[in-house]
Amino acid sequence: MKSKVIGAVSLAVAAAGLFAAAAPAFAQQKTITVWWGKGFYRSEDDALLETIKKFEAKTGIKVELSQYAIQDMIPKTVAALDAGTVPDVAYSDSYDVQAQGKWAYEGKLEDLSDVMEPIKGRFVQNTLDASILYNDVTKKKAYYGFPLKQQSMHVQIWNDMLEKAGFKQADIPNDWAGYWTFWCDKVQPGIRKATGQRVYAVGQPMGVESTDAFQSFYTFMDAYHVKLVDDDGKLTVDDPKVRENLIHALKDYTDTYIKGCTPPSSTTWKDPDNNVAFHNKTIVMTHNFTISIAAKWYEDSQNQALTPEQREAGKKAYEQDIITASFPKAPDGSTIRYRSDVKTGLVFTAAKNKAEAKQFISFLLQEENVRPYIEGALGRWFPVTKESQESPFWQADKHRKAVYAQFKGGTAAFDFTKNWKFTILNNENVWAKAMNRVVSEKVPVDKAVDELIARIKQVAG
Questions:
Q1: Which of 325, 329, 341, 335 has its CA nearest to residue 399?
Q2: Which of 96, 218, 287, 390 is the most exposed place for a label (fewest CB within 10 A)?
Q3: Is residue 391 a contact partner of residue 368, using CB atoms and an 8 Å limit?
């Protein structure tokens, strides 16, 4: 699961600012270690490698890069923290959701304000806010991370399957109850009759090991305006209205399973599994926290290792057959405000080369370096800088335009940015556990919600 790329040696003199005071050519060369989550697409990783190559040539600092699968990053990082052998720079898609707030609180993260303050005007405010966390050792908030990219919730639909079921996109209701009834009571019988196959209308992630499950459930909570914490991070779960709306959200989420409208295996799905079900056309639609589903077909259309027929199939799927859409209106008729998950990189206080690590981060975040990295992910990640958000890339096709419009409509932060203890709840995936209490153990929804609230209070109170 590990690939290591060791950059070439360069003795160029560093530039001014953070690149000042370069060592003489005969001095021992500095090396920094960088741990990075493996990219979803080759173009993403290639862009990172190109930035490292340019950084080494500019500064004379050698970068030893190790890339790991997302599921390995936190266990490896925790082991490194325990052993005192942390990398100089680290990035994982899972840090912010499951660990960063805790590490900041415990004083394990380096303050990156000297990197971020001079350039913060280039960044969208919500991405800065997500990087400013509380340190209980210093008793202050600061930039205990650097924003790199962000993601939000989207719906992916097979338009050709919808048509085969006897419907078109214009037939999809936009009211909350009508929307879910349409998929379960109309599309599913229609597609099964048309194909003679056991196709499911919806892919509803519910696995405890799936981040999709809790991110999707947050969207259902947002549909009912559930706020588990206030702006100061204090719990609101003792409010009877919060409990009432949590019950509504959990009932709606689990009803899809109880009605037989999502595959039985969705209770054990991991993050790739709703993607796989969609690609295999065993489901008509699914909600996903990126447009990686559509982007997979775009990548196929560009992949010269595939046959011309396979590339053409990828092009047709991406340009014609797949729809990227939003959720329907909330039950009260309002527009759902989606959560933005801002992905951040870190420097640990125990790092051995913090000055050089900050040089690397500053270089990476320059527009000409960060933009190819984000766009190399083919729309899976949305930029954190104002300039990159206005790149022509986001107007190039219907899927990217949908992502752009959704982010421009305004987003909200996840609770873990206000109360770091929610990283523990996310790591446990109490949300998916509550779902499985209902669908697998036949516990009444209100009882499952009471158990969920009790656990939230126990951990985050």
A1: 325
A2: 390
A3: no
Element (H, E) at 438: helix 430-439
Architecture of domain 154-337+429-460: 3-Layer(aba) Sandwich (3.40)
Measured between alpha carbons, how far is 216 from 219 in angstroms, rounded to an integer?
5
pLDDT tens digits for range 301-345: 999 999 999 999 999 999 999 999 999 999 999 999 999 999 999
* pTM score: 0.89
φ/ψ bin of 392: left (φ > 0), alpha (ψ from -120 to 50), beta (otherwise): alpha
d(CA 252, CA 51): 45
Phi, psi of 217 (to 5 degrees): -65, -35
Asked: is 31-151+342-408 a CATH 1.10.390.10 domain? The reply is: no
Full DSSP string of 206-266: --TT-HHHHHHHHHHHHHTT--SB-TTS-B-TTSHHHHHHHHHHHHHHHHHHHTT-S-GGG
Question: Helix, strand, or coil here: 349?
Answer: coil
